[in-house]
Each structure stands twice: as C-alpha cells, then as structure tokens.
Amino acid sequence: MNDESDDDARDDDQLGEAYEYDDGGEVAAGEEDELVLSSSRVVLPDGERPATIVVRDGVIAAIEPYGPERGIDFGSRALLPGLVDPHVHLNEPGRTEWEGFATGTAAAAAGGVTTVVDMPLNSSPVTTTVAALAVKRSASAGQLFVDAAFHAGLVPGNIGEILPLLDAGVRGVKAFLCHSGIDEFPAATRAELEAAMPLLAEHGVPLLAHAEIATPQPPLADPRRYADYLASRPPEFERRAIELLVDLCRKTGCRTHVVHLADADCLPLLADAKREGLPLTVETCPHYLCFAAEEIADGATEFKCAPPIRSADNRERLWQGLRDGVIDLVASDHSPCPPTMKARDSGRFDEAWGGISSLQLGLPIMATEATRRGFALADVVRWMSEAPGRLAGVATGLRVGAPANIVVFAADRQWDVDGAALEHRHPLTPYHGRRLHGVVQNTFLRGTLTGIPRGRCV
Q1: What is the pLDDT of residues 46-80, one digit of tens each?
Q2: Were 92 and a residue from 100, 103, 250, 264 both cysteine, which residue would form a disulfide, CB within 3.0 to 4.6 Å?
Q3: Helix (H) or strand (E) holding 7
Q4: How far apart are the first and last CA of the chain?
C-alpha cells in the first residue's frame, strides 16, 4: 500500500517540525514535553466527538474541546485508542521462521494494535512452565514494537505449574479441547479442566479454550475441495466443547473465554449461559466475519483454519451475535507459518497448516465490514480495544490518566491488500488483493510513534 495523500504528507511534515525524531524514527514531545493531537473524530469512552488530546510523559493528561490551532490537527481522520489483540501466535523462540517478536509486533504496530497477548504455542518450548515463560520473555528483549503480554498453557501433566504461572503474571491459561496441531501441546481433558479451573477462579484469571471436541472423521474424499475440509470439522465439534465449558464454568465460577467462535448455531447456548450470569466471554475473528465457505476456491489453502470458515448465512448470524452482545470481542488468531506449510503446490487441505495471517489488517477489515452493516467506529473500538483489554487486564481507552496509546485512522481511504507489503514475516494471506476501507496512518505507544522497538513485556 503506497497511496499517501497530500494530507498525510502534510501531517508528517507537521510531526517533523513540532517534535524531535531520533535516528530510529521515534517522535517525542518537544521543548514543552507535550504532545497535542486534535481531530474532528475522536472515539472516546462515551462516544465519538471532536476533541483535542494532550499527552505528557506518555500519559493522556487532558482531553479538551477541539482546538485545531494547537499541536497537530488530523482533521477528519479519526483518533482511536490503541487496539488490544489477545490472541496472537508469535512463535518465538523455536519457530521464529514462522513468525517472531520483531516481525509480529511490527505488523501489530502498523495495524494500530498497541498490546498483543501471545499464545503459549507454537513456540518451542511451549509456555506451559515458568521456565518456558522466562525464556519467551527473554527472547522478546529489544524486539517489541508494541507491548506484549503472555498466556500460559494447560496440558496433561502441568497442573503443578499453573499457580506459579499465575504468580508470574500470565493473563490467561489456554487449553485445546482437541489436537492443537503440534504434539508438544496435547489436548486437555475434562480432568485437567476440573483441576485447573478452581485455581483460575480463585485468582480471577480466565481459562481460554479452543472449543472443539473432535471425533474421528473419514479421510477427505477430495483433499483439494474446501467443502470436504469444511465437512470434516462439523459444527457439532464446537457445540460439544461449548456445552462442556458452560457446565464447568457453572460449577467452578471460573472466568471462561471461548476463543474464535465460528459456529453461529452455538449463539443461543452462549446467550443462555450469559443470561444465567455465568462469567463467560466469547470472541470471533475477522476471517469468520469477512469470508464465506461458498466463496473459497478448491485448493485455496490460505483460507484453512480451525474451526473452519463456514457459510455466508453463518457469517451474518455471527454479526448478529456481535450486535446482540453475545460475542464480546474480535481477535485476529494470527497464526502464520512458512508458505511451504500451506501446501500451496498441491492445494491439499489435509496437508496444509491451519492458520490465518491478519494481525496488521484487523482494524481495516473490521471497519470495512462493520460499516457495510451499519455499525460505527465506536463499535469496532469496543470489540477490538475495550473488551479485549478487560479480558487481558490491559488499560485501554482515550481517557485522562490512561497510557497515550493512540491510533490515527483514515477511515475513508480505500486500498488493496498486497501481502508482500505487510510487516508479517511471510506474505501469504487470504486477504491479498482484497479492497479495504481505512488506513492506519500513525500508531503512538505511550505518546511516541512506533518506529523503533520500545514495547514492554506487561
């Protein structure tokens, strides 16, 4: 994407004149130690309105009436709070050739994400021990363009590590209820869940569950047909897992989070659990809200993920789940791999790694698709900043006293995705060539542009 407008260039000039850059591209406040950003569209906790944001020492010091004559005026380009993505596979150490802290967090920054929460796989070692968590934090040093937090994993045999991992500051504990795709991270059974969930409830930390309970399926009749792959992971996989999770959530009081919901038929079950008052939250992903099974060509393995992308009707019912508040948030489940692992030459879904690369694209994808359905930018902020921040215990929002994590978003600009131009380690993405509305122009992390790796482990 190289379509910088005159307004963008003018704002870059203003940034350069008003603030000091270091040789890594950082912008910091000038002599008054103050950064002032204005827009006619600022998405605040109580709604969108014109405003001026004053930043001092990396913190929002004041939110004032719109005063474009002071500091930098972004006009109609929106100012949003930095996004939180609580479901990212960065894979370092051990599988850095899939993705790593530097490339993954650079992509996050370019997409307006200021905090990522790393999943306990597919790194090696997987984050199922305190020692492995320490190795991961050490590997991230000097590489983070945004802040990073960490989830731990629940697997057979590591129940003794759960409390030490909680004490070490993990934001959630992830369990797979089916094979994870790598043998180092086996599925948790009901026994592991029943042992761990009371501990998590006591500490107020959520269990995050890949909600599929799989049963043996016949080999794909035609491994290149997407319809055959879709049939191999039927909706019943998700329903069985969610029924188990609701039952255990009720019995233990553990905060329980269903990751990447794909099956809209589960929404009534989840709605009933929420009406009961259970501490249950639900996420879905941009790919389930954007694509439809009917549109996926045979052999197009870049679309493979688990649970699979389902029908167009299912997609629209997921949108209704967001509208109704049954689905709380949207996360990327950024799960990249080397292109050779996607079996592009053969087009065989049974041989391809399941995962979608989209970390940099979430905001424009969601802005594009949400606008088509009558939602506002404030809705997107709620799904991608406020709700995931609550899940992960990360401060969000443009409010006085909050970290100055701010995104400048040109919502009306259109562009075509070029996978090779993204910051992800590998260019393969199912969004390649797709026209999106909305460009992340700048991302500020604690009041500085994200041009150098100044992120922290949080």
Answers
A1: 999 999 999 999 999 999 999 999 899 999 999 99
A2: 100
A3: helix 6-18
A4: 31
Q: Which amino acid is at 322?
A: L
Helices (H), 124-189: 130-140, 159-167
Sign of torsion over alpha carbons 362, 368, 371, 377? positive
pLDDT at 14 (0 to 100): 47
In the DSSP assignment, the letter for residue 334 is B
pLDDT band at 24, cuts 50/70/90?
very low
Beta-sheet strand order (sheet of 329-330): 152-153, 173-176, 207-210, 256-259, 280-284, 329-330
Q: Would you state the pLDDT for residue 33?
A: 77
Token pair for 125: 């070692």
Beta strands 78-81 and 406-416, pairing class: antiparallel
Residue owning tokens 């409390």: 163
**CA distances (Å), origin 195, targets 158, 240, 242:** 11, 20, 18
**Beta strands 435-445 and 59-64, pairing class:** unpaired
Integer angstrom CA distances of residue 94 from 82, 121, 124, 132, 334? 29, 10, 4, 11, 17
Q: Cis peptide leading into 307, omega within 30 of 0?
A: yes
107 in helix, strand or coil? helix
